Amino acid sequence: MTCSSQKQQKHQENRYICDMEIKKHWKYHVILGIALLLLEWLEDYTINGMKGLMTNFSGEYQGLLLTFYACSIAIYFLNFFVIAPKLLSKKRLIPFILAVFGMILLFAGLRYLTQEVILFEITGQHNYHNKSRELIYYVFDNSYYAIKPILYSTIVFLVLQYNENKDKLFQLKLEHNKGEISFLKSQISPHFLFNTLNTFYSELIDKQPNTAKDIHRLSELLRYVTYESSQDFMPLAKELKFIEDYMYFYKIRFEDQLFVDFSVEGEVGDKQVPSLVLIHFVENLFKHGIVNDENHPAEIKVTIEDHFLQLTTKNKVLLSDKYMDAGVGAENVQKRLKAIFTDEFEVNYNNENGVFQAYLKLPL
Fold first, then answer.
1. Which mean pLDDT values do the consecutive 10-residue runs of the chain (364 residues) have?
2. Residue 102, domain member (yes or no)
3. With contact defined as beta carbons under 8 Å apart, do 268 and 237 qualify?
4. CB-facing half-sphere around the CA of 354: CA atoms within 13 A
5. What is the pTM of this model?
6. Are residues 163 and 272 in the same domain?
7. What is the C-alpha R_g of the chain?
8. How far apart are CA 201 and CA 215, in angstroms?
9. Do 119 and 67 meet the contact criterion of CB atoms below 8 Å apart?
10. Which of 72, 74, 71, 99 is nearest to 85 (CA)?
């Protein structure tokens, strides 16, 4: 399967999931709409009796009611599907408040167009009299009606988002508990391995100090994977040190035939990243890429900014190898990042003309 077809398939899967989410939540919007409509009818009946209630069904007001509800529904779903997910879910409160004012103006504009222009051409009657159709008064008066769909859609969005986040946290907790159980079951083997390595280190430190140092470095690498990296987040400095140790043993294996350019730009400081995510891309490069071509060295570049980190890898691909640009490991990494960062990260794979590139962007 080509990279473009895989991307298309992934896009179709994401679209299918989105459609399923819309269908799953649709009933809440319908129930809310019916409830609000019944409350308005009850209000009309309470204030003006049966005459006030029947006004909603008279032909004289049908055009006004339909256009009003159409404008309200448009603003409701604009906020629910576009504004709130892009701004409110990312806690961008000031842009969201500005967007609310924009939706109020949009509601007033839509209502004026449908009622005072289109409907007027059909019926010859205005809903607002001449003076109240002036811009400032018209917008101010319609702000009261616009706030309702904005408020309702915001509440529904926050409630549904809270439930989804609660489900995600529950699933993460289950996976974490399963991981702890698996970790406890595997304690005997790591202890035995570390004790054996320590024995080799003690026996070789005087006779073969270089070999002993390599054994110690391997022991530290394994200890990091087995114990320290069990946490969700680790210091970036330790993750980069782990990558360096990982590459060190490949250098020993390939001797002077390893050609991989590894660079880190920016200040590491005390920043933290999800544990063992960066190594996935590095390991992928060594596992499937060509790393012994002096004319086409592989590249691993880490760029650190104040609020985000970028990792880029680039390497030639073995023509006989099916590169795992959409494999299980890549899917697991994306699922984990999505559980942690929602949509505030970026992962891209590109495999063209025998050159594979991977790109990762994480918030810090």
1. 46 46 66 75 74 68 84 92 89 92 95 92 86 90 92 89 76 65 52 62 72 76 72 89 87 85 93 90 88 91 93 84 54 83 88 90 91
2. yes
3. yes
4. 6
5. 0.50
6. no
7. 30
8. 6
9. yes
10. 99
